[in-house]
Amino acid sequence: MRAPLSQSVCSPIWAIIVAICFLVACSPSEPIRIGFVGGTSGRVADLGIAGRDAVLLAVELRNQAGGIAGHQVELLIRDDQQEPEAATRALRELIAQGVVAVVGPMTSAMAMPMVPIANEAGILLLSPTASTDELSGRDDHFFRVNASTHENASRIAQYHLRQRTTRKLAVAYDLRNKAYAESWLDSFRTAYVQGGGELARPIGFAAGGEAAMLPVAQALLATRADGVLIVANSMDTAMLCQQLRKLDQRVPIITAEWAATERLLELGGKAVEGVIVAQNFDRNSTAPRYRSFHQTYRERFHREPGFGGVIAFDAANVLLDALAQRQQGRSIKETILAIRRFDGVQEPLVFNEFGEVTRSLFITVARGGDFVVAE
Question: What is the pLDDT of residues 264-274, one digit of tens each?
Answer without folding.
Answer: 999 999 999 99
